[in-house]
Amino acid sequence: MTEKVLQLENVSKKIGQKEIIHNISFEVEKGEVFGLLGPNGAGKTTIIRSIVKLIKKTNGDVHISGINVDDNFKDAIKHVGAIIENPEFYMYMSGLNNLKQFARMSRKEISDKQIMDVVKQVKLEHAITSKVKTYSLGMRQRLGLAQALIHQPDLLILDEPTNGLDPQGMREFRELIRELAQRGTSVLISSHLLSEIQQITDRFAIINQGKLTHIERITDLEQEAGFTIQLEVSDPEAAKLVLETLALEITNRNGNQFTLHTTNEVVPEIARALVKANIDVLELAKIHVSLEDRFLTLTNGGEKA
């Protein structure tokens, strides 16, 4: 049976008569990267703040590593590492001294070896003795990760963690998260960036106007949504007849090149049918997965109804 590191059951938050989030329920499994995806203002940060009790939820239950946060907050929260806004540091201290200061405040005993193990894990050895004021934004994000991981939590919570990072920093961050998950750490990550959620998560939930509208595995979504392929052949007229026989819609044609939307199961069938008709396949390449279109459909374009 899969271990559940985080469980939310019907979590709601009201401010006055306005309901910010409504009956949110989902689970995060051990070693899973779970994404909260939604437009800005959809309620993602409210959900995260409710989990760690930075705000008081109106209704519902949250369990972390099987512990109800309302019944035993101290025991529940010791299993959590989090970056919920920009990580804050003592800028005129080194990264290492910042981590040592944080370790002194921890409820767990944290050795110098544990600190250095985390530093290596986030690939910050080369700069850990330098002052934080000299760090780039990407380096500060990695130091923030080290701070969140220093007590070896079961669950890492990240709210819009790639804001402001350049493409290289985003790639390094993704690689770190995947490595953490492979080592057994569960990760809950919120983002409004479709590409980030698609590249980094195992499953995602769509939050729109305070409601959870959809939960799906990334692999299932790609399978269902399909993708666009670029096809180049030796005999375009004969290929057109073959593609029409397979009931495939050609979205664009340019000379001997075709663009069409299909699924994984159909691609081998296309190749076999063309070869059987003595048509040479010069190129067959996937060029786009339509996650963006699916997201916009499920969120009504991200606009309020």
Looking at this protein, list some descriptive labels:
305 residues, alpha/beta, six-stranded mixed sheet, four-stranded antiparallel sheet, 11 helices
Topology diagram in text:
Elements: E1 4-15, E2 18-29, E3 33-37, H1 44-51, E4 59-64, E5 67-68, H2 73-77, E6 80-83, H3 95-105, H4 112-121, H5 137-149, E7 155-159, H6 167-182, E8 186-191, H7 194-200, E9 203-208, E10 211-217, H8 218-225, E11 227-233, H9 236-245, E12 250-254, E13 257-262, H10 266-276, E14 281-289, H11 291-298
Parallel strand pairs: 3-8, 3-9, 6-7, 7-8
Antiparallel strand pairs: 1-2, 1-4, 4-5, 9-10, 11-13, 11-14, 12-13
Helix content: 25-40%
**How would you name the oligomeric state of the polypeptide chains in this document?**
single chain
Count the E strands.
14
Give the strand order of the largest sheet, numbering strands 1, 2, ... along the chain.
6-7-8-3-9-10
Strand content: 25-35%
Sequence stretches where pLDDT stays below 50 over 5 or more residues = none
Number of helical regions? 11
Shape verdict = globular
Structural commentary:
By secondary structure, the chain is α/β, with parallel strands linked by helices. Helices cover 35% and strands 30% of the residues. It is built from eleven helices and 14 strands. The chain is globular, with a radius of gyration of 24 Å. The two termini are 40 Å apart. The relative contact order is 0.14. The model has no long low-confidence stretch (mean pLDDT 87). Belongs to the ABC transporter superfamily. Residues 6-234 form the ABC transporter domain. This is Bacitracin ABC transporter ATP-binding protein.
